[in-house]
Amino acid sequence: MIKVAQNTILQAYRSAPWRNQYQLMGVYALIVVGVAVIAGIYLNVTARAATMGREVQSLQEVILDTRQRNSDLEIQYAQLTSYAVMSDRARELGFKPTGPEQIVYVGVPGYQPGTAVEFAPPPALEISNEPVLPPGFNETLFEWLARWVAEPSQIITQIQPAMPAQEGQR
Amino acid sequence: MSENGFWRFSSVAISFIFVGAVIVIQLFRIQLSPQSADFVQQGIDYSGYWQTVYPARGQIYDRSGNLLAGNRTVYQVGVDLQQVTDPEGIAFALMSVLGEDYNTVLGIVNQQATENSVFAVITDFVPAGKVDQLKLIGESLGAPGADVLSSQIESLDGLIYTPHLMRSYPEDALAANILGFVSRNGEGYYGVEEKYNELLSGKPETIWMPLDPNLVQALPDMPPGTNLVLTIDREIQVMLEDVLEDAVEENGAVGGTILVLDPKTGEILGMAVTPRINLNKYWEFEDLITGTIPFNPAMSQAYEPGSVFKILTMAAALDHGDVTPETTFNDKGYFEIGGSTIYNWDHGAWGRQDMTGCLQHSLNVCLTWIASELGPKHFYDYMTRFGIGHTTGVDLAGEISGRLKLPGNEDWFAADLGTNSFGQGVSVSPLQLAMAVSAVANGGNMMTPHIVRSMVTNGRQFTPGNQVYGTPISAETAHTLGLMLASSLENEASSALLDGYRLAGKTGTAEIPTAYGYDSSVTNTSFVGWGPLDDPRFVVYIWIEKPTSSIWGSEVAAPVFRDVVERLVILMGIPPDDVWDALTGH
Fold first, then answer.
1. Can you state the angle between helices B310-320 and B376-385, rounded to 10 degrees?
2. How confident is the model at residue A161 (pLDDT cuts 50, 70, 90)?
3. How many angstroms separate the CA atoms of B78 and B84, rounded?
C-alpha cells in the first residue's frame, strides 16, 4: 500500500510535478482558510460574549451602587426633615406652637381626613401595566384562521371598521 | 521527493503522533487517577466564588410616612496583602483618619500573603465621609502641594473599600423603645426590629459568581425586606416624650411611661418611656438602661397599678348586676375580708356613698365590699376576660404578662380578693391596663393593641384588620361607667380636666411592695383616662414611677394627663365638644 502511494507520487512528480503540488497546496489552503474562518467567528462571538459579560458585571455594580446611594439619599432627606431639624427651622422662621384657644375649627362637608400613608396599592387592586394588544399582533396565521372559523363575524368586524354615519342617516 | 526525504517526513509525523498519544494517555490517566476529584474541585474553585447577597433591610415609617429607620452606606476597609507596598503608610493613614491603633493595623498589613489568605479585614462600618478622606489622600500622594499627612505616606496601594448597608435612625432616640435596634451582624433586638426581624431582613441568597465573563449571569432580582408602616404618629410621639421628660424631672421621679391608644382600633398612637437610647449609638444602651429596667417598660415591666384598677372592679360589678350607679354603701372606714382589714387611703370613714362617690373618692373599703358582693369566681372571671394575667398580643418583642393570682393558686388567699379589687397584689404592665380600660371607652369591645399598621412588599401594601381581643362587658355597662368616671372627675374638679372637653378617667396611687411589706413613702402614681366622652378617640395611660414631689396620683399623674390631652386634641384635630356638636348638628 505504501509502495503504491510512493510510486504514484513519484510518477506525478516526474510528469507534472507542479500540478500535484498546486492541488495539494490548494486543498491545504482551503482547510486552513476554513479553520481560520471558523476560529475567527468563534473568537468574535466569544469576545463579544465576554464583553457583554463584563458589561453585565459592570451594570450589576452600578445597580448596587445606585441602590446604596438611593438609601443614603433617603436617610439624608429623613434627617433634613426630622422633627428636631424641622422644629428648629420653624422656630427660626418665627413660628410658635399653637394653643387650643387659637384654633378655629371649620366644618367642610364631605371632607375625610387621611388616616395613614399609602405607599402602594392594596393587594386586591391589581393594576396591569402591560399594553393590551389586539390578537392580530401576536397570533400566527393558523391561529387567525382557527379564530376565523370559530367566530367569523368577529374577524369581519375587526377587518371592516364601522362605517361613519353619512349625512342624512340618523 | 527522495525516499530519504519521505522517511524523514514520516519520522517527524510519527514523533508528533507519539507525543499526541502520550498526551491523550496522560489525560486518561489523570481522569482515572484517585486525585481526579481534587483536580476537578480545584478547577471549580478557581472558576468563580460564592457570594451571599443580602437584600436591603426593610424601612420603618410612622403612620404619616416619616422615615424612622432606614439604611445608609458604610464601608469595610481591608487590604490586599499582595498589593501592599507601604505598610507603615497605610497604618499611619488609618490611625490619622479612622483613629485605629497604629501597631494593630501594621500587624495586619504586614501579614504574609498565603495561598489561602490574600485579603485581611482591618475595620468595618466606616462612614462614607472617612473613606472619602482616605481616597483623597491616596489620590493626592506625590502631587505638588500635598498636605502634611500625605507627605508621610508613600502609597496606599492594597487598601480595599467594600461598601455595604447599615441600619440608620434619622430621628436618633425618637420612639427608640418601640423600634429597637439592629446589631452589626444584622440581627434585630427589641421592639419592632426584633419582632419583625425576618420580614424586615428579607431572604439573603448565596450565588455562584463565575470569573469567566462568558458565564456571567444577572444577579437574582431579590426584593428588599418588607417595609413597615407603624401606627404611631411622629408628632404625637415627640409630644409624649417631651411631656414625660418634663414630668419625670419636675416630680423628681425615677422614670415614667405615657401610652396613647385608639380604643376603637387598638392602634398605639404613641408610647413614651424613660430612659431611651440614641439608636444610632445602641451599643451605649447598657450604660443607660441598667439593672432590672427593661428596654420598654410600657409592656415589659409589671407593677402594682393601684386605684386605676378600680375601674375594672366597678365594671365587673356593674356588668354582673351586683351594683348600679345608685347603689349606696355606708363606708365605716374599714372592711374585713379573709381575716384582713382593709382601710381607705386616708384611713378615714366616708359615710354613705353612691358608686360614683366610691370612684370619686377612690375608696378601698367600698371597692372591697363590691368585690366581696361579686365573689371571687365572678371577680376573677371578669379580670381574666379583661386580659389581666395574660399578654395583650401586641406585636412588639419582650411583652410580659404580669401576675393575677387566682383562687386555687398556692399563694392566693381570701384577703387577696379585697386587695386585688383596688389594684394591690396584682401586677400589670401599662399596656395591659390601657387595653383593659379601652373596653370601657369602646362600648365593651377590647381591641388587641398593635404597632404595625401596614406592610409594604412587592409593590403592594397589606393592611391587616384590627382584632377584637374580647368583649368583657356590655355596651350599656361601658356607657354607664364612662358617665360615672366623667362625673367623678368633674365633681372632684380634677386637675386632669381640660376646658371644652368631657373626659373620663381615674387616678391611681400604689404603694410599692418590698421584702418587708408595702412601703408607703414611695409610690407609683398613675392616671388612665379617655375622651371625648361621647366619641372616644384616645385612651391615655400615665405612669410616673416613685415621684418625690408628691406621693399622690391626683397631684402627679393627673396634671400630666391634662398636659397630654391638651396637645393631643390639637395634633389629632379633635375640636371641643360644643364646636363638634355645632359642626355635626347634635
1. 110
2. very low
3. 11
| Residue given cell 378601698 in the structure block | B364
Question: Which residues in chain B touch residue A100, judged by CB atoms under 8 angstroms apart?
Answer: 498-500, 566, 569-570, 576
Residue B214 has pLDDT above 80, yes or no: no
- Rg of chain B over Cα atoms, rounded to whole angstroms, equals 35
Report CB contact under 8 Å: A117, B64.
yes
- Which residues between 105 and 124 in chain A have a beta carbon less than 8 angstroms from any beta carbon of chain B? 105, 107, 113, 115-123
Is a pLDDT exceeding 90 seen at residue B494? no
Between positions 5 and 24 of A, the ones with CB within 8 A of B are 6, 9-10, 13
If you average pLDDT over residues B217-237, what whole number do you get? 88
Contacts of B201 (CB under 8 A, 6+ apart): B54, B55, B57, B58, B186, B188, B225
Q: How many CB atoms lie within 10 A of CB B571?
A: 15
Q: Which residues contact B154 (CB under 8 A, 6 or more apart)?
A: B85, B86, B89, B141
Q: What per-residue confidence (pLDDT) applies to B147?
A: 65
The listed range with the strongest mean pLDDT (A100-114, A153-167, B77-91, B359-373) is B359-373
The three grid cell numbers given for residue A15, joined into one nine-digit string: 510528469
| B49-62 pLDDT tens trace | 787 778 889 999 99
Contacts with A74 (C-beta within 8 Å, 6 or more apart), sequence order: B59, B67, B70
Q: DSSP per residue over B479-493, as a string?
A: HHHHHHHHHHHHHHT
Chain A hits for B174, Cβ within 8 Å: 82-83
ipTM of the shown complex: 0.82
Which is more confidently placed, B58 or B118? B58
Integer Cα distance of A2 and B517 in angstroms: 120
Distance from CA of A138 to the nearest CA of B (A): 28
Q: At A37, is the secondary structure helix, strand, or coil? A: helix
User: What cell does B550 get?
Assistant: 408628691
What pairing do the DSSP bridges indicate for beta strands B60-61 and B227-230? parallel
Assess whether the previous peptide bond of B472 is cis (omega < 30° from 0).
Answer: no
Mean pLDDT computed over A132-148: 74
Hey, is the C-beta of A71 within 8 angstroms of any chain B C-beta?
yes
Pairwise CA distance, residues B211 & B389, whole Å: 60
- List the grid coordinates of B201: 431582613
Asked if the model's pLDDT at residue B178 lies above 70, the reply is yes
Q: Are B560 and B544 in contact (CB under 8 A)?
A: yes
Spatial separation of the C-alpha atoms in residues A21 and A12, rounded to whole Å: 9
pLDDT of residue A164: 43
Please identify which residue in the block is written with the cell numbers 382589714: B341
Query: Rounded CA gap, A97 and B388, in Å?
Result: 39
Q: Which residue has the higher pLDDT, A97 or A35?
A: A35
pTM of the model: 0.82
Cross-chain residue pair A119–B461, CB shorter than 8 Å: yes
